[in-house]
DUF6519 domain-containing protein (Occallatibacter riparius), 996 residues
Amino acid sequence: MGSDLARISFDPSRGYRSVVAQQGRVTLEADVNEESAIASEALRVETIEVVGPAGTPDDGYKVSWNATDGLVASKGTMYVGGWRLHNDQPVPFSNQPEWLDQPQQTTIQGNALAALLVTEQSISATEDQALREVALGGPDTSARTRLMQHLVLLPTTDSDCAAAEADLEKNLQSKGLLLDPATRELKYAATLGVSFFPPKQSTNPCCPPAQGGYLGSDNQLVRVAVSSFSGNHGTLLWGWNNASFLYRAKVVSSNVLKLTQAPIDAAHTPQPKQVIEILRTTMVLGKAAEQNYVAAPDGTIVTLGAGTIYDPASQQLTLPSGTTLPSDTHTVFVRLWQGTASFTSGTAVQLDSDSGLAVTIKMAALPPAPLASRPYWCFAVRPNTPQSVYPQRYLEGQQLPDGPRQWLCDLAVVQQVAGAAAASWQILDDCRNHFKPLIDAGDCTCCELTLSPNEDWATVLKAAMANAKALSICFQPGAYKANSTIVFSRIGVKITGAGAGTQILGTSLEVVFEFDNCPNVVLSDIAVAAGAAGFSNNAATVGLQGAITIRACEQVDIERVIVVCADADLRAASCIAVYNPAPAATTLTNAVDLPRFAQRHYNLRILNSEFRVGHFQVGILVVNADRAQIEGNYLITAPILRNIKYSDLRDNVYLSSRLKKQLIHGMSIISTAPATTTRDKRRLLRKKTDAATTTQANAPLSAPAPEKAALPANAAPEAAPQEKQADVAPNAQATGAQFQISALPHVNLGDVGRAHVTASFGNLKLQMISSDKLTNVWTDALRKANLNESSTAGQVHTAVHQIAEAAFKAPDSVAPGFRNYVSNLLPALYSTSSQGIVIAGSVANDVRILNNTIDGTAQGIHVGLSNRKAVPYVSGLQASVVQISGNTVIVRLTPEMTGDRHGIFLGGVESAVINDNHVELIRGANAGQDIYAIKVIGVLGRRVLVERNAMLRFTLGIFVQANTRQAPAGYLWKAADNVSTSTNWTGPFRVTDNVP
């Protein structure tokens, strides 16, 4: 609130640099205050020019959510409007130490903009008693100013910062506020002018009326504030002495307060019919035991009654009956105003009948709390110059408010999680700008091209690429809206920015950056978001497109980037897609002599980055990896409820098709009739022969026996056992038709909520897998499907699929059991990515996937080669060297994820190590499908090690399908020191010290 001032002389429009004291002259407090204001404002403007309107150097004020504190702003530093703010500890939005009188938060459904509101507030010695000088006998001296921090939530319909910011500016303007994006300062769309009015008409003809002017006897600074406004009418508060006199008080009874210190004189004692304001404590300064508090800027306005309302002996102040006193565990404050007045916008109103002062306020709206406090103006009047006002500009025209001075900074766009029992939030977009200290900001010093979001950057960039052989580009902090794909072709490129503070937004694009045949690409400290994902038959967009797409670039280094790709119901896009050319088809003669190095080398490194993968999309896709190092990255698909309704399924072909697999899986229709023709007899004989061969070949490949239990502590140690090999003769590396793999392991369907459904129609036997809750429902539905003993296999097949399709497209035509089952599927549909990290194509020479975290995917890490179109079929393509180590993979299985699912998949490989990974399954309700933690299949080379992995809650832990039933001599295939909560199927691998 205000301090006791004689006048406010600082005027930024004058452009003064300093205050110069002169000898023998009187120095007033206005001179000292103006000197301080000149210096602080110069520093503030300079800081904005260096840092920008808002930014953090240490990742401060990051918004997150936890179940204990709710939404929280992290500790750290934030610059807003040139001021430095700091949190020593994380601050919950619901329990802010600088906002103890925080009003109840209005319930927000959906999205909200989390923001930091900064307000400059004056602190007096009444609040902070440390400002008193006891050597002077107790009087206060100078006051202080402080920046008060409030974390607010503002409703929005947007999910990204740029759109939310644009809508915020429009909404604020409709509420009487203007937000300056260059300084982040909030300015009030209200003005005030001062005028005089003559005194009352004299009834004595010998005493003509005096000229209008200030009629007071004291030098005064008048404060006028708007306390309420609606329509075109409002109420103002006004007071002498800048309304600075403030007293602590204790509540004695329902309408009696006791001032804890006596007023300094009678003039500053509460008077009959005077207006006072009762304020709560908004902040505790220092330690609670010191009892130093900050008063709230606004409170309860009370007009005192007539007669004796203040007793100097007891220091008790009697309030009108019916007054509601605020409760506060610390203390309440009483501020002295002079009076109130009703006003109409644009019309002059007298402050009272004696002062000679009138004001004209023009405004359209009063900003609502807690976004802003009431606007106020301060002007000085002097009795010896009654026709003057200081500053003079108040007489010359309408003036903007002197305060409160406020600044607003966006922190994040958040969304309330639908269906949560308690209020929970997820972070949709981080709005903070990041910057490096000058000693660390070396990345942009060598940039030949520096781009700013405040210019036509796309045109500047296009002109720079026209004749360049190499470009070093620095994107300054801010949001860059890309209307078309930014394509770099055949030039060396280095792009850097300010981390999350530099956002390249392709709202309508699937590919934001594309690099074609570039000798080198360096991309760091930048955020890229693609807003579209979909199928296109354009030949130029073969394969999944990435928000960042790289084609045939020899040296690629991507580090500390944030990449977002959009949701889609079909796997159509990725965050990063890297396509290197495949070796010539003539070199692919068999699985063992693929060229380790082509004529050109393609080296890829993706490090320490964050990928926010859209629903059903892919995080990192690398096709034909020459050398690829993918390390230290975080790939996340947030578990957002998809809110699919039954009525949505009719038009959603892809989703319905996937969900239908929960009803029908592994269907077979077999004729049990004896063969009658020679052709049928031969076919039956061939089936029996093939079945016998498969049974004999796979007989030794039953699940491994449990390992020997540990010996008791007092038992004698045994000799080290020899690892047992399969009791089948070795089979050399297989090719072509000799390539055989073991049968799939048995899965207990009951463990995943599945069951067999069988039915017979004459000589036809139907068998399929469905939910264990639908066995009787299927039996009844098939009985009513007009199938009989003469039905053909095609008719049975069609009837089964028609029943399943009707469950999604015509629910009223199927049994309630189907409708209930599908209705229970829909609330279990959460956003889940299709794949995390994928190495594909026809060649992978040296692949290292290290220390990544992949959260919320159906396939965590997938390394598998194939090229069936380009070359004739071979026994299986092999990667050369693969290392998958130290990764954390959280697989999310929902009813929609019915394709291949696994934590880590490795196809044919010459040499591989899969070690020290943590793979965990989160299975949603009704997600009944078998799923493997680590799956190794195909043609295996001399060394394949699966060691020290942890696998939790999967159908199978390790599952191996090798090309031969026993490792050839000189080969090392081993699974050791792994822990799994389910059975391992290790085939021909050596097995030691696994659990179970």
About this structure: The chain has five domains: 29-188+407-430, 191-402, 444-579, 619-634+835-996, 644-671+740-828. Residues 585-598, 691-742, 870-875 have pLDDT under 50 and may be disordered. Residues 29-188+407-430 form one domain.
